[in-house]
């Protein structure tokens, strides 16, 4: 039973604070690279962050296993981080 609780706890960790951090990182990347005026790019990226956060939360509980869950989040974070610094 403790294994199931740990699985749910790790998924909740991935969905909430990690999902928030990934959405913030993606927002920074989008705001830098959207071909709009600066204020419009920030607004569009911020609106997109709500969808990104929701997608990460859904992915956290839909992934078949912990390895797939964290690999997917890691790849998304690496891609967003790379875009944010380029």
Write structural notes for this entry.
The protein has helices spanning 2-33, 38-62, 66-85. The chain has 86 residues and is mainly alpha-helical. Helix 1 (2-33) runs antiparallel to helix 2 and helix 1 (2-33) packs parallel to helix 3 (66-85). The protein starts with a helix and ends with a helix. The model has no long low-confidence stretch (mean pLDDT 95).
Brief synopsis:
By secondary structure, this protein is mainly α. It has three helices and no strands.
What's the shape? elongated
Helix content: over 70%
- What is the total tally of β strands? 0
Low-confidence residue ranges: none
Counting copies of identical and different chains, the oligomeric state is single chain
Tally of helical segments: 3
Please tell me the overall pLDDT.
95
Report strand %. under 5%
Largest sheet: none
Succession of helices and strands: HHH
**Rg computed from alpha carbons, rounded to a whole number of angstroms:** 14 Å
Distance between the termini: 45 Å
Structural class: mainly alpha
């Amino acid at each position: 039973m403790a294994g199931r609780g740990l699985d749910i706890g790790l998924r909740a960790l991935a969905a909430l604070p990690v999902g928030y951090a990934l959405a913030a990182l993606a927002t920074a990347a989008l705001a830098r690279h959207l071909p709009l005026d600066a204020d419009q790019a920030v607004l569009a990226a911020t609106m997109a962050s709500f969808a990104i956060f929701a997608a990460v939360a859904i992915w956290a509980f839909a992934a078949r296993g912990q390895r797939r869950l964290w690999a997917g989040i890691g790849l998304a974070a690496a891609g967003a981080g790379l875009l944010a610094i380029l």
